[in-house]
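We were asked to recover a plausible sequence for a given structure. The inputs and outputs are reproduced exactly as logged, with field labels preserved.

PROBLEM: sequence recovery
POSITIONS: 184
GIVEN STRUCTURE:
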């Protein structure tokens, strides 16, 4: 019962803050190619949501793109307002995401030993540190780096499926993003 009240209180505060926020829509191009929504809640706090295509592995461009939905609350260290469309400077964030299976436009198929190579679904989060570099009133470059936790569902061609996590594999996924953004 106490958890429901706390969640209700947090959602109410977010709704009140959102009603007074400066909002902007934009397009991001880079390791994430997405439509994005950003809401500046205060001089330091912002909230971003992105829907688009993300590189599965930025170091290996042939790995393909996956449809992705992500949300990220951010705390900006700089309080100087550079633009009404975005917050500039260094920030800390909590990147939450869900990713669908990789798009396969060229029809690449794997042999039996690689049937579990690509995850069917991914969910995860990563505390991030990033920097927003202003280019103009409506555009900027954003780079971020985070260490995360990932849950992935793998499917075999026979229909079998299983869930795996980065903790189960004793790995720590690295989230690396570099994008150009234009705000409307």
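RECOVERED SEQUENCE:
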């Amino acid at each position: 019962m106490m958890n429901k009240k706390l969640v209700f209180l947090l959602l109410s505060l977010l709704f009140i803050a959102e009603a007074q926020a400066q909002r902007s829509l934009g397009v991001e191009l880079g390791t994430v190619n997405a439509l994005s929504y950003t809401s500046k809640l205060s001089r330091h706090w912002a909230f971003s949501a992105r829907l688009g295509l993300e590189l599965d592995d930025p170091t290996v461009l042939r790995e393909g793109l996956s449809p992705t939905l992500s949300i990220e609350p951010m705390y900006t260290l700089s309080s100087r307002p550079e633009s009404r469309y975005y917050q500039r400077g260094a920030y800390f964030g909590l990147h939450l995401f869900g990713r669908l299976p990789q798009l396969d436009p060229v029809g690449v198929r794997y042999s039996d030993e690689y049937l579990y190579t690509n995850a069917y679904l991914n969910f995860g989060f990563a505390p991030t540190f990033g920097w927003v570099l202003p280019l103009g009133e409506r555009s900027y470059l954003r780079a971020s780096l985070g260490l995360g936790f990932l849950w992935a569902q793998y499917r075999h061609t026979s229909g079998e499926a299983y869930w795996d996590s980065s903790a189960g594999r004793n790995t720590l996924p690295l989230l690396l993003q570099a994008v150009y953004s234009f705000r409307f």
